[in-house]
Model the fold of this input.
Amino acid sequence: MKPVYYFALCAVFLFACSGEKEQQPAESKTDTATAEDTSFYAPLPAGIYPQDNPWSQEKEDLGKLLFFDPRLSGDNSISCASCHHPDKGWGDGLPRAIGFGGKELGRHSPTVINSGYFEVQMWDGRAPSLEAQAKGPIQAAVEMNQKVDELIGELNAIPEYQEMFSKVFGESGITLDNIAAAIATFERSVVSKNSTYDQYMQGDKNAMSPAAVNGMQLFFGKAKCSICHNGPALTDSGFHNIGLKQHGPLTEDLGRFNISKDDFDKGAFKTPGLRSVSQTAPYMHDGSEATLKDVVNFYNRGGDVAENRTSLITPLELSEQEVLKLVEFLKALDGETLNATIPKLPAMVETEKAKAKTKAKTKTKTKAKTKTSKKKT
Ligand code: HEC
Ligand code: HEC
Done:
């Protein structure tokens, strides 16, 4: 499937480039937009589960519990959902994330919507997969600050988890790899699809407002957004320095350069997907743009910082009207987001067997130990 997908991306890219040349001088064309041409359109494919971590309903359900469970953090206060909450577009609504101990981090929490479609994870692409990604924040001192053996001990004390892990993973039970595999499986179910844009492209010509249709023409034409935002999730999975002025506690963030050590990548960040983008403000790796209108205005003036900026970003000369139309199109990328209900977490009830064990243990333990086990209940 990969080569076909790649080819599709290239086709979209080529269209975007040639479309740009054709449409740039013909500004009036955008006012009579009919999207008869559907060659740039790519619906989200199904089946994004890797061979070494296949889908099962039980695994997805387990991953969902873990994603929402603050017991995954060192002081049981922060879950993945603290920074990736469904009510906040699966981000946190903040310019930059607030980590363990209330400290502001350098980067914005990206949404996990459609993250199953991204070829690499993180703003700088340092995680090759969702499985690899999930292990990071649990252990990171600045994020969830949890020790792996403590976490496994804690989860083992929750009978429902014990049962679910052995049902899904058999003998191996509760391990960091299995925790990550389950969370990744859940994340792949957080998909934004069936947007008004999809409905329009699939034949319902009333689905999008005329302004949004105009915006779409601009997106794939004069405003050349689709050079980078293309394919089913509207990302090229590439890295670009688009000329942002750095905001937040960091004076400089070299982004992709930290991973590739290639000067070309200084200040380059991963192109985000754009489905459901109206739900995930503020925007950019440093949360520097508050609204979609701010984002489009930023592109319209050709970025803010020239140093190392990609030559693909240039002033667009969009009228105020065109800016608003582009925003309308970005809103038409909102879709129904799957799997967004918040689950009830398994309780710390002890099984009769475990209770008996704890009792036997407490009998032989000192008073100090009894104190700590009391604290827990
Ligand atoms: C303290 C807030 C915080 C917590 C807790 C947190 N994240 Fe994140 N997450 C972030 C930030 C910030 C980034 C971007 C980091 C970067 O690019 O350097 C990120 C990036 C990601 C990405 C990459 C998305 C993309 O588009 O590249 C995924 C997936 C993700 N987190 C999932 C998780 C999971 C799963 C957990 C729980 C195990 C979790 N996060 C816990 C803040 C958080
Ligand atoms: C040269 C490639 C490129 C082009 C052209 C481009 N973008 Fe982007 N876009 C990016 C990258 C890279 C980022 C993230 C930059 C960062 O955070 O440092 C981004 C971020 C965004 C975001 C913020 C998303 C989020 O979740 O934070 C939006 C919205 C967006 N672009 C829309 C557009 C629109 C609309 C256009 C056309 C006017 C456009 N882009 C043109 C590469 C591009």
User: Anything to note?
Assistant: Residues 1-35, 360-377 have pLDDT under 50 and may be disordered. The two ends are 51 Å apart (CA to CA). The first strand starts at residue 192 and ends at 193.
